[in-house]
Task: structure prediction
Amino acid sequence: MCVEGLVVGIGNPLLDISAAVDEDFLKKYNLKANDAILANEEHKPLYDELIEQYNAEFIAGGSVQNTMRVAQWLLEKPKVAIYMGCVGKDKYSKILEEKARESGLNVKYQYTDQECTGTCAVLITDNGKHRSLCANLAAANCFSPAHIEVPENRKLIDDAQYFYVSGFFLTVSPETIQSVAQHAFENNKVFAMNLSAPFLCEFFKKPMRAALPYVDILFGNETEAEAFSKANDLGTTDLKEIGLKISNMEKINTKRKRIVIITQGAHPVLLVKDGAVTEFPAVKLPEEKVIDTNGAGDAFVGGFLAQYIQDHSLEVCIKCGIWAATKIIQRSGCTYEGKPDFAPL
Result:
C-alpha cells in the first residue's frame, strides 16, 4: 500500500523557465542551440527578459524533483513522495513550490538568503527542434546537512522507507548523502542513486565511491557507465561487464544485493541483478514524435520508483520506466498531462 511519505528525494531544485526564442536572442547572450551551460554574469538578465517578453512557461525542475514529480503522477495519490533541496527567499521559489505541490509532491525546501533560487533557462529555437539550456544553480548549492536534522524533517526521514539522490547532489552536500545512506543501512531501507553525468564519475569520484557501498539501486546511462568504468579502472567498455562489476563492488548492507540499471536511449535497458544481465527493449519513436529528450532519464527513474515502492516486480518497474520516458520525450520539458495509462502487461 502506498502511504504518504514513503519515499524521500534530495537534490538541486531549479525553476525551469522555458520559452520559444529566435536566433538573435541566443546571439545576444552568446548561447548555442543544443547546448547546456552554467550561467555566468552575462546571462543573469536573461531570466527576467524571458518572463517579461517571451511568454515563458514555468516548470518545477532539477533532476530529482523531476523524478519525484513523475513518480507522483503515476501514483495518483499526493504526498507519497517528499522532496528536499535548497532555494532562495524570492519570487522564483514561490513559483517553484507552487508548481511542485501541484504535482502532488510534499515539498520541504531549505531556504537561504545568501543566493537566489536556482533557475534553468530552456531556450527553444527552430520550431521546437533545438534547445539551449542555461542553468544558474545559485541557492541549490547552499543545502546544508542541518536541514535533515530539523525535527519535522528528521521525522520524515525516519518514517520513509526509500531514498533517492542524484549524482549532481555530490557537488553540493556529500555529507547529507552519507548521513541519509547510513540511516538507510542501519534501518534496512532502500537507498538509490543516479550517476547523473559523466563528469561526476571523474571529478567527484571520491564522494561517489564513498556513497556507493550504501547504494542498493544504481541508475545510469551508457555514457555515464563508460565514464565510471574509465575513472575506476574497471578495464572494460562493455556495458554488461561494467554493470556486473559495479554490482559486485563493496556493499555494506548484505541483506540485499545491488541492482544496477543502465539505460541506452532507444537501445535496450540493461538490468544487472544476482550476477545476470537482462535486456528490456526500449520504445523507438519516429523522429518527428521526439520533442525533447532532456527529461528522459529522470522520467525513467520516476516510472521505476513508482512501481518499486509498491512492491511490483523489477520487470514491471523497468517497463514503467520505459513507458514514462517515452511519454516525456514527446513533450517540451519534463512534463506530462492527463491520467497515466501505464499497463504492465
In short: The first helix runs from residue 23 to 28. The chain has one domain: 7-13+61-117+137-329. The domain at 7-13+61-117+137-329 is CATH 3.40.1190.20 (UDP-N-acetylmuramoyl-L-alanine:D-glutamate ligase).
